[in-house]
Design brief:
InterPro entries: P-loop_NTPase. This is Nicotinamide riboside kinase 1. It holds the Pfam family AAA_18. By secondary structure, this protein is mainly alpha-helical. The chain has a single domain, classed as P-loop containing nucleotide triphosphate hydrolases (Rossmann fold, 3-Layer(aba) Sandwich), CATH 3.40.50.300. 43% of the residues lie in helices and 6% in strands. The protein has four helices and two strands; from the N terminus they run H-E-H-E-H-H. Strands 1-2 form a two-stranded parallel ribbon. Helix 1 crosses helix 4. The two termini are 31 Å apart. About 6% of the residues have low confidence.
């Protein structure tokens, strides 16, 4: 969801989690000249084709290669040494009403953003990963607490 707080959540987690990095999908958009438009003339930023996914995957691979060495020698009881990568992007799953400044072009959300959200959500539901859905009506602080506590519990299992 556009303007849903993904980057803010990721940055807040990074501040609290040692050895944490973020790769943001927003950094991998193709130039505007390469972005297709729909029948209403809206630039199609909410589709994977708008992103340079090869470059993003290369960045993830580089991080994994550079982060791999601490895993072999780390103390199993010390979760602070576990490298954490947060990959954040627009393929998240909740929408709540917001007021934007400047406001979106009339019809953009209903005609493009929401249909793309539904498409991507269906695709993600068909993947067998464990996905935790966040309630976008909760406060930024509540969402942070939920995700932070879940991460700490997962790190403790390592």
């Amino acid at each position: 969801v556009t303007n849903g707080g993904k980057t803010t959540l990721a940055k807040n987690l990074q501040k609290r989690l040692p050895n944490c990095s973020i790769i943001s999908q927003d950094n991998f958009f193709k130039p505007e000249s390469e972005i297709e438009t729909d029948e209403n003339g809206f630039l199609q930023y909410d589709v994977l084709e708008a992103l340079n996914m090869e470059e993003m995957m290369s960045a993830i691979s580089r991080w994994m290669e550079s982060a791999a060495h601490p895993l072999a020698s780390r103390d199993r009881g010390n979760t602070e040494e576990i490298p954490i990568l947060i990959i954040e992007g627009f393929l998240l799953y909740n929408y709540n009403t917001r007021i934007y400044e400047p406001p979106d072009t009339p019809g953009y959300f209903e005609g493009h953003v929401w249909p793309m959200y539904l498409k991507h959500r269906k695709e993600m539901e068909n993947i067998s990963w464990e996905i935790v859905y966040l309630d976008g009506t909760k406060s930024e602080e509540d969402l942070f607490s939920q995700v932070y506590e879940d991460l700490i519990q997962e790190l403790a299992k390592q």
